Amino acid sequence: MGVIQSNASVTCDADLNPRFAGSSQIASLRINGVAVNVGSAPLTIPLLIGSLQLNSTTTTSTSVVQRAFALDTALTDVVLGEAKANVETLPGEPGGSPCRV
Fold first, then answer.
1. Per residue in 86-96, pLDDT tens?
2. Does residue 18 sit in helix, strand or coil?
């Protein structure tokens, strides 16, 4: 596997709502000696031992998690290149959103 990179961010839109974004890239990847063209789009590769998830994004109402590489097996999970961003509601913020300060 070549160089990996993950980014996660949260910004406020024009309506003062949080907007989450994530991206990741894997420069190169070989599985069993075979080069795999990854790019930056989400990709799941089934394996005999489980599955390999590349460039996955999970978004909730308060956070985003971006993972460049996640190997899921029955015995364990291995994650490389993970980035997280979140918003936290604080007392006294109008509407409970940090975008509405």
1. 988 777 666 66
2. strand
Pairing verdict, β 77-86 and 50-59: unpaired
Evaluate whether 36 touches 47 at the Cβ level (below 8 Å).
no
CA–CA gap between residue 8 and residue 95 (Å, rounded): 24
What backbone phi and psi angles, to 5 degrees, belong to 47? Answer: -125, 165
For the record, the structure tokens of 55 come out as 């460039």
Which among 91, 49, 85, 52 has a CA at the least distance from the CA of 66? 85
Determine contact, residues 25/68, Cβ cutoff 8 Å. yes
- pLDDT tens digits along 19-44: 999 999 998 888 888 898 888 889 99
In three-state form (DSSP H/G/I as H, E/B as E, the rest C), the secondary structure along 68-100 is EEEEEECCCEEEEEEEEEECCCCCCCHHHCHHH
Rounded-to-integer distance, Cα 41 and Cα 29, Å = 14
Domain-wise residue ranges, the chain: 4-100
